[in-house]
Model the fold of this input.
Amino acid sequence: MIITKSHRLILRHLIFLETYDTLRSDSGMQSGALRDDLISMINAGLIEVHRTDEAGVSRLQSYDADNLQEFSFRATSKGLSLIS
Done:
């Protein structure tokens, strides 16, 4: 996978767990571009997907790509190694 400027921008915002809405707001990216980048980075193992509910935070193995706003994200160690 070729890492683009937008990928690095997203990874820099995902050092800690962030919601989709916070990431969209902080990155300034359009929803479609952010969605496409997130999905490709999740598939490449650069980002983890989490769900937060009354039981706490849990890492997910599968997610609904059409409803990314329902999830939170964090860069993996592999993803973090690409932003240094």
DSSP finds four helices and four strands in the chain. The mean pLDDT is 94.
